[in-house]
């Protein structure tokens, strides 16, 4: 049983570029949440997708957007990248919303 | 708004010694509390969770935590540290389990041989 998988594992971008991160949830899960973990900090909630809609959002600007596909996989898009967007981006999946979340290994984004 | 405070960004204990990682929470409603562990270059793994009921919660790898409402605490303990316990530990809170997780800033646990 595959767990939560994220791609790519590492990514380097320059300021102003756009990036797309991908997440496949654990088998049987229908909810995907995205978190940003800056160096030395705890993860911060970006948003959650359920039934292909954004159900809840944290305190992140509109430059951060997402999508959930019918197979429950999800994408996180960040536009107009800033140096401060450099972080580990974690995807977590769960069943039916805010039940136990299972995390992927993350995508480490470096913005130069 | 809910929050958690983890006291001590770095904790070092000797192998075989007691592990105590501290977490205090703030929540306007009965909280759901979690401890996650993060090994290098990996995602977060759930150690244990408190929802309702018994205040002493047992988790994986010999860890346990006790919910103390009067002290607004949810400290993580393990009687005897193993080298494999070296990792980053995060406490998290969710109001009533129906909202986002809010994480603390983490505690890096080092085990001294």
Q: What does the model show?
A:
Chain A is mostly beta strands and 112 residues long. Helices cover 0% and strands 51% of the residues of chain A. Chain A contains no helices and 11 strands. In chain A, the strands form 2 sheets. In chain A, strands 2, 4, 5, 6, 9, 10 and 11 form a 7-stranded mixed beta sheet that branches. In chain A, a hairpin with a 5-residue loop joins strand 7 and strand 8 (74-78). Chain A is globular, with a radius of gyration of 13 Å. Chain A starts with a strand and ends with a strand. The mean pLDDT of chain A is 94. Chain B has 113 residues and is mainly beta. Chain B is built from no helices and 12 strands. Chain B has strands spanning 3-5, 10-14, 19-21, 24-26, 31-38, 44-50, 56-58, 64-68, 73-78, 87-95, 102-103, 107-112. In chain B, strands 2, 5, 6, 10, 11 and 12 form a 6-stranded mixed beta sheet that branches. In chain B, a hairpin with a 5-residue loop joins strand 5 and strand 6 (44-50). The radius of gyration of chain B is 13 Å and the shape is globular. Classes of the chains: A mainly beta (112), B mainly beta (113). Chain A binds chain B through residues 4, 33, 40-45, 48, 56, 58, 90, 92, 97-106, and chain B through 36, 41-46, 49, 90, 92, 94, 97-106.
